[in-house]
Design brief:
Blueprint: E1 5-10, H1 17-27, E2 33-39, E3 43-47, E4 52-56, E5 58-59, E6 68-71, H2 84-94, E7 99-103, H3 106-112, E8 120-121, H4 128-133, E9 137-138, E10 143-146, E11 149-152, H5 157-169, H6 172-181, H7 195-198, H8 200-211
Parallel strand pairs: 1-2, 1-6, 2-5, 6-7, 7-11, 8-9
Antiparallel strand pairs: 3-4, 10-11
Pfam family, one: DJ-1_PfpI
Protein name: DJ-1/PfpI domain-containing protein
Domain DJ-1/PfpI: 6-163
């Protein structure tokens, strides 16, 4: 009997939806993989600063030993960086995971749990200073694996990371098939997806509109 690879995505109020849903779209399609949204207790959590809701089907205690832990992020000022049940769950799950991963500012939550000291890691570009405070060796790579910890940069990079994970837990052909299935073939209208490409004016605007003033 083939065992199922269990993926747990802990969710909490104010998460960024795509941080969780992007990787979910890739990973839940893999043969032999189950993906579960977990939280303090089953039920709805408010995402994207109150404009969206996601349901956790299970509590932390229902899936204590996932094979893959995938921690999404959210606005830095609204992250649950001192929420003991979440941090305890992450620490305990990490003892048994094959991979412990994060998307965007989810890396700050891994840092708050004490998992990134001396680890090469990435996060949203605006959160590099905070990530350094947790002892991480910050890199601007789209995603990076060190040991069993895999971190992805901002928001959409979680899809890249999930396809990379798919290649490891299945094989390259299946990973490519998943990429094709979700038609992940980015062709953005502007080349402004990183601070160095966007330029100082656009970086300042992003800070003013969202980063410095979360709703």
């Amino acid at each position: 009997m083939v065992s199922t690879i269990k993926v747990a995505i802990p969710i909490f109020n104010n998460i960024t939806v795509l941080d969780a849903i992007g990787p979910y779209e890739a990973l839940h399609r893999l043969p032999g993989v189950s993906v579960t949204f977990v939280s303090d207790k089953p039920g709805l959590v408010v995402a994207d600063e109150g404009t969206f809701k996601i349901e956790a089907s299970s509590g932390f205690e229902d899936l204590p030993n996932p094979d893959i832990l995938l921690v999404p992020g959210g606005p830095t000022k609204l992250l649950p960086l001192d929420h003991k049940p979440l941090l305890d769950y992450i620490r305990k799950a990490h003892e048994c995971t094959t991979f412990t991963t994060s998307v965007c500012t989810g890396a700050l939550i891994l840092g708050a749990a004490g998992l990134l000291k001396g680890v090469k890691a990435t996060t949203h570009w605006a959160a590099y200073p905070q990530l350094k405070e947790y002892g991480a060796k910050v890199t601007s790579q789209r995603y990076i694996k060190q040991g069993k910890i895999v971190t992805a940069a901002g928001v959409s990079s979680g899809i890249d990371m999930a396809i990379y994970l798919a290649s490891i837990i299945t094989n390259e052909k299946i990973a490519k098939a998943v990429q094709l299935m979700i038609e992940y073939d980015p062709q953005p209208p502007y080349d402004a997806g990183s601070p160095c490409k966007a330029g100082e004016e656009i970086v300042k605007l992003a800070h003013e509109l969202w980063i410095d003033n979360p709703k």
